[in-house]
Design goal:
mainly alpha, 2 helices
């Protein structure tokens, strides 16, 4: 059994980040954090688009004739 077959753990890192106290951070550190999170959002969106395109290609390939 490979790790990808295991259930995903609840409370992923994004959830932990959302609960983190931001009071200790300076404005510059908060700006850096925002930039990092925006870059991560772009990375996830790109991956989602790639996965959707892959799924569409697979669906088209395996589509039954006449449907």
């Amino acid at each position: 059994m490979d790790d990808s077959d295991l259930p995903r753990p609840r409370g992923d890192l994004a959830s932990k980040l959302a609960k983190e106290d931001l009071d200790p951070y300076s404005q510059d550190e908060l700006g850096d954090r925002i930039a990092l999170l925006q870059a991560e959002i772009e990375r996830v969106e790109a991956h989602r688009s790639k996965a959707a395109a892959h799924r569409s290609a697979a669906d088209a390939f395996f589509k039954k004739p006449g449907t």
